[in-house]
Write a structure and sequence with these properties.
The protein is of the alpha+beta class. The protein is 59% helix and 13% strand.
């Protein structure tokens, strides 16, 4: 969680109080003890209010379980990325990642194990994240990566890298069935579509083609 709100509010209160104290020192020649005590108190209160702002902003943009961005943030950011892409005559890749047999994990081992799997996936994606890309939980057991096309020049290699990294991390989850893995579908803006919903739908279709092609999911052992 960022400290933006806390830093801004505390700094503003500090400056205002210093100005107030400086003014009274010039006018009266001294500063009352209550004014000296008031500065740290006011800064502390401002810090608390800033913290509430930071928390609200964090949960409005992030998924609380996995701590990656949520769907709302992707929608907000994609329009800006698309605008830059159009001006620069570049492309955007949408990668839709789905966890195989996730329902089976929840049904067999419970939601705590399911949550552990989701965290393992998000941690791996974040560990392999490029600075210019957005990683988000799209819903349920699906994750989305939004990135400039120059980041994924060789889609086959980067998909294989993500699959290997995530599958390795999933293997650390206790008591998980050996047929757990992931499937990835890709859509490219503006080649295949110009809206995020259409791109997600196309990536989803490509992902299920991968699932059908590999009827037996990749194993962890």
């Amino acid at each position: 969680m960022k400290y933006t709100g806390r830093i801004i509010t505390a700094t503003l209160v500090f400056i205002i109080n210093c100005s107030y104290i400086s003014y009274y020192f010039v006018v009266k020649g001294h500063v009352e003890i209550i004014e000296k005590i008031g500065l740290p108190v006011m800064v502390s209160i401002a810090w608390w209010f800033g913290k509430q702002y930071d928390r609200a902003k964090f949960f409005s943009e992030k998924d609380p379980l996995t701590e990656v961005y949520n769907r709302r943030f992707v929608y907000k950011s994609f329009s800006k990325m698309a605008s830059k892409s159009k001006k620069g005559n570049s492309k955007i890749n949408i990668l839709l990642i789905d966890i195989n047999n996730f329902k089976k994990i929840n049904d067999t081992y419970g939601h705590e194990e399911g949550d552990a799997v989701l965290k393992a996936v998000s941690n791996t994606l974040l560990a392999n994240q490029n600075k210019s890309e957005i990683i988000a939980r799209w819903g349920g057991d699906e994750f989305v990566i939004v990135s400039r096309s120059d980041v994924y020049k060789d889609q086959a290699k980067i998909i294989e890298k993500i699959e290997c990294a995530v599958t390795k991390e999933l293997g650390k989850c206790p008591e998980i069935t050996p047929d757990l893995g992931i499937a990835i579908g890709v859509a490219v803006y503006p080649d295949e579509a110009r809206t995020l919903n259409e791109l997600i739908s196309i990536a989803d279709s490509h992902m299920y083609k991968v699932k059908r092609k590999n009827q037996k999911p990749k194993t962890l052992i």
